[in-house]
Design brief:
By secondary structure, the chain is mostly helical. It contains 6 helices and 3 strands; from the N terminus they run ααααβαββα. Strand 2 and strand 3 form a beta hairpin.
């Protein structure tokens, strides 16, 4: 790859042919057609043109590799998510019905990987569990800040943090090529990092 066409091109810009991501353009074309309420040829052609312009003006960083999906870890991820969903729902019901005001906390969790996709996927899964919601995701440090319901002491904070790190490891095991940076799952315990 020559210096003028690679990611290290002058000015740090990628060539136009690398900025145009056809799956995104296809998606934008479908959205364009839905907004116009028509699939006429002129609408589709103008949707492709709008998609190309959007790709060039607002470029997304290219994905380094498509994720490799591992069926068994993916089933474990989905199964554990469903179990957590049911258990957390019951806990939230109990917290709302019992007398007294529930205590909550905002906790910081430094993820072990440097992948934006892992951070996004982990954050989404954590937010879908009742009783916790992501209030901030800091991309520069790969840190998630969560509001967690019914946390009364340091032990509860540690358990919530370990739960998020365990979720991150399950995501990495299910989609291994997400783990490009440090923190690729090694089978070690996930609860060691604070």
């Amino acid at each position: 790859m020559s210096a003028t066409t690679g990611p290290d091109a002058p000015g740090g810009r990628l060539p136009a042919r690398r900025l145009i991501q056809w799956p995104m353009i296809l998606w934008l074309t479908l959205v364009w057609a839905a907004l116009w309420g028509s699939a006429a040829p002129l609408i589709l052609v103008s949707g492709v043109l709008v998609g190309v312009v959007v790709s060039l003006v607002f470029p997304l960083p290219p994905l380094r590799a498509a994720p490799r999906i591992h069926p068994w870890p993916l089933l474990v991820l989905l199964g554990r998510f469903l179990v957590d969903l049911v258990v957390a729902s019951a806990q939230v019901v109990w917290v709302t019905l019992r007398p007294g005001t529930p205590r909550s906390a905002v906790i910081e969790v430094d993820l072990l990987t440097e992948s934006d996709l892992v951070m996004t996927f982990t954050g989404q899964l954590v937010s879908l569990i009742p009783g916790s919601v992501i209030v901030e995701a800091r991309r520069s440090t790969h840190t998630l800040f969560l509001h967690v319901l019914d946390v009364t002491d340091d032990r509860g904070v540690d358990e919530a943090r370990k739960s998020v790190l365990a979720q991150e490891q399950r995501v990495l095991r299910a989609f291994t090529s997400f783990g490009d940076g440090p923190g690729q799952p090694t089978g070690a315990s996930t609860g060691e990092r604070s």
